[in-house]
Prior knowledge:
Order of helices and strands: EHEHHEHEHHEHHEHHEEHHHHEHHEEHH
Strand order of the largest sheet: 3-2-1-4-5-6
Number of helices: 18
Oligomer: single chain
Shape: elongated
Amino acid sequence: MQHDSTRAPLAGVKVIDLGQVYQGPYATYLMARAGADVIKIEPLDGEPVRRRAAISRGSAVPFAMLNGNKRGVALNLKSPRGKEILIGLASRADVLLENFAPGAMDRLGIGWKTLNARNGRLIYASGSGYGLSGPDSANLAMDLTVQAASGVMSVTGFPDGDPVKAGPAIADFLSGIHLYAGVITALYERTITGRGRLVEVAMQEAIYPALASNLGMLYDNEMIPPRTGNRHGGLSMAPYNVYPASDGHFAVIVVNEPHWFRLLKAMGRSDLENDPRFNSAPSRVENMDQVDGIIANWGRTRTRDRALAELREHGVPAAPVRDLIEVTNDEHMHMRGMLTWFDHSQYGRIAIPDSPIRLHGAQTPPLIQSPALGEHTASVLMDELGLTAAEIESLRGEGVLGRATGIVADA
Length: 411
């Protein structure tokens, strides 16, 4: 049989998505954008991020960003019939993913052992804060608390300030990416063994490698790494900072000596090429304040865009510090298809991100908006389990299934 290299990479893979908030839904969104059939299971009142829509439209936009190209089912997993339905769906699936608290699925009677007994080919993916084992496994975890416990907050911020969290939800998304990778690894293994596997990713463990520079200082100096603001986490590179322009800020990093000499030329300071305070990486680190002062004084005399143009012209690694309005309108990302303006029926015009994973020549599914709550409940249960319209209506009356809400409804 001839292989179709243009088909979507995960076409034919069926995923049961019990993910909530960011970690789980991002992993399954990557699967959906690779062509998997993702069935998103939510409680009858919706998952937490959807429920934020009651607070403000902006609070709900992340749901639209992470749940496109999925079919939505509203199912009461606390009811005996709801559990039976989930087991039936999982019995026909390739992947089930959840990021509930460890043990929650087992307490419901629908955990790994139960589902694996029904479907030996199932990949069961579990995302958590601290893992399924160990003394901290039961600790409640959200992105903020994991940033605190992992050491990230201890090295974020300025030396004279308090610990600060990273602005983005980095623990959620780094672990979501690892969860996706774990599922794909297990799917590959299944092509050889024919058997599924339990895959788990802990947020704390996924974020730890990102501390590499800070850990370098810990081992080099045998001291607790300080907060370094916008300087290098190991204080072993200079210049490495954010500098003022007349109308904003820009970032500069010098990785090697050619970069330094190019920076001097860009600033018109070739007179400093042989200055012993700056003519080697160790000397620049030792005189970091003077280095930063020279660049800051130069930057203040020109606009951000002019400074960036001159730096790029001379081959210096630099970038503007941009706000989110600039980023969501980024011409480069829109041209590459990473961002697409999308008129969502519930949330209005928003910039939807695609998967950053590019498999050249492979088919990319068209963007489909995130489902309304329970939008596909009837069609999924008819298609997958053979339930009739009358049976579905009866289950709705019993509180097992939710009715479709929003402007789109299923049959």
